[in-house]
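Quick start: read one record
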Amino acid sequence: MSAHMNEETPLLKRTLTSSESQIKNSKLFLAVFSAVLGNFSFGYSLVFSSPVLPQLKSPDADPRLRMDTEKAAWFGSIYSLGAAAGGLGAMLLNDMVGRKLSIMMSAVPSTIGYMLMGGAVDLWMLLVGRFLTGVAGGMTAASIPVYISEISHKGVRGALGSCPQVTAVFGTLALYALSLVVPWRWLAIAGEVPALFMVVLLVFMPSSPRRLLSLGREQQAERALRWLRGSHYDTQIELSAIQHSINTQSRVTWSQLATPVYYRPIIISVVMRFLQQMTGVTPILVYMEPIFAKSKVSLAPKYDAAIVGAVRLFSVAVAASLMDKAGRKALLYTSSMLMFLSTLTLTMISHTTPCPPGPSPPNLTMSLNYSPHNDIGNSLEASSAGLIPLISTMVFIFGYAMGWGPITWLLMSEVLPLVARGVASGLCVTVSWLTAFMLTHAFTHLVDNYGLYVPYLCFTVVCVVCLLFNAVCIPETRGRSLEEIENYFRTGRTFTIRRSQSTAQSG
């Protein structure tokens, strides 16, 4: 019997390989591009407040729209509140109307929100518009990765799975670049374009084959899969695998959640999402230009923000290439250390930088010790010191995008049990966005009362906690089978399944 199975295994592998070799990815790539335009819009809307707030807080702003500290805090943070609502709403919509329609529906709050902000004549229009774009961002962040994973095949799933994050970074960079040349109202009008373009393209894209099979629409699922894979692809093997997965899926009970195999990975995922936000990445991105204005950076804040956006794009590309080569824990250690060193540097700089600046006292010794050489030396020292906040912020963003940004999402997909993934993902999304809301709202008040020193000091402490949490609680999952990971959470021991056994099982 065993010998017979061993003879059949190469035949099965040859069948799958020949089937995979007939796959045409062009239409799949088009479908993924259509969907990730929603992530582009998400990245754009997340940092919309960064170039807009300095203009709305200036004395030249429209009196009806001028913001003080409290109003600016709400304008920056209410996006996260909308994203929490949108993420939870998308979880319900994903099951009710499907992934594709959920993504398309996100264009409604996005377009209305940008129209309100672009034509704002009162403060409530700005706040409601910002909240609605947050709802759209939460919907896309929850729906698009699921849609991409369900329409992709295993040969490209890893690469396409990183597209949502990369596209969101492109959206952020696009906003920073446009803000250099476009007034803030036109920034809002431009924000409507990606979402509308996304809807037009998605009309012509297929629904998820998994979604169609779960509704009992076998013929539509077969047509959708053939459209995605190419006309010469044998769809029956993949459709059978999807149907088997649907048939064997069960729901988790409350008594099961009390066992370590369920609650330990859920707690680790939730705490990771909490710590991810507590590192301060959201307030730093949302308030980047006001932060640079207070940090006495030698370049104009709007140029600093664009430079950091470019660095973020580069760091996401680096992280994507290292994800499967280096271990998860090694990248998290590197990420935590880079963020710790950068926030510590920012803490020390902001502690020595008065905020807000007061009038300089008269220098009584100036007339005695003045020389042109001293003046040149002081100006060079000031300009080099003015670059330190920019460089430190670039290091922070690079460190975050190398580890705690993408790996938090990756580990969730690896450690969460499949039957509990829907509930656990919803819990993680809620914790993440509510933490971002509270932190983003408090950040403005902390800076106004104490300067940048206090929030940066808090972020430094959190980075130390991230290091310790990674060392004690997070398992290394690279190269491990799902059985090994599940066994780790069940027993609390190190991985006890031998590599040869897991390799044989995966084969």
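The domain at 25-205+249-353+382-491 is CATH 1.20.1250.20 (Growth Hormone; Chain: A;).
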